[in-house]
Design a protein that fits this description.
179 residues, Beta-Lactamase, five-stranded antiparallel β-sheet, two-stranded antiparallel ribbon
């Protein structure tokens, strides 16, 4: 099972975080516990030389010793999947590759700013691939089709909302000079 997906930049700033298993830490709020996990994950993966493998077994305090970190470092971003020991290392590496390729196709040469300014779309893509810690889809064509459908639905609902707001505003304000 996938326990969490964390994307951080080279400075340790979280860009996308999705937790599928709750993290708890004595004396900390849930948000503080998640921030602690992000800091621990960043510290562990950033200190490893690029020549080392992309699998890291160790202890993330809040998830226990049965957690593996599988990650890829692309340009300025670390894509980290925290998984239990039963998950296939190569399977998760392939899943990261599918995720990055989907991002690249959606944003044309994806960069860190795309993750910041289009986080909703990034979450759509991630939701097409992983839901509740389980892998749903790995076929990139199917993933992109689902994301495109969601984007069209969002655009349609936004245009209807804007149209309704425009009508409400013009009705409320009334015509100039009419009392």
């Amino acid at each position: 099972m996938i326990k969490g997906i964390i994307i951080v930049n080279n400075s340790g700033q979280a860009r996308i975080c999705k937790f599928f298993q709750q993290v708890h830490r004595e004396g900390y709020s849930p948000e503080e516990a998640q921030q602690s996990v992000v800091q621990q994950v960043y510290k562990q993966v950033s200190e490893r030389p690029d020549s080392f493998c992309n699998y890291l077994e160790g202890s993330i305090m809040q998830w226990g010793d049965a957690t593996k970190l599988i990650y890829r470092h692309y340009a300025t971003l670390y894509f980290v999947f925290a998984v239990d020991k039963l998950e296939s290392d190569l399977g998760i590496l392939d899943l990261i590759q599918v995720f990055v390729e989907a991002l690249d196709k959606c944003f044309e040469n994806v960069c860190e700013l795309d993750l910041i300014f289009h986080s909703d779309k990034v979450h759509y893509i991630l939701d097409e691939i992983v839901m509740a810690g389980m892998v749903l889809e790995t076929n990139i064509v199917t993933i992109l089709s689902g994301v495109n459908d969601q984007t069209k639905l969002h655009q349609k609902s936004t245009s209807k909302l804007n149209e309704a707001l425009g009508k409400a505003t013009s009705t409320k304000m009334g015509s100039p000079g009419v009392r």
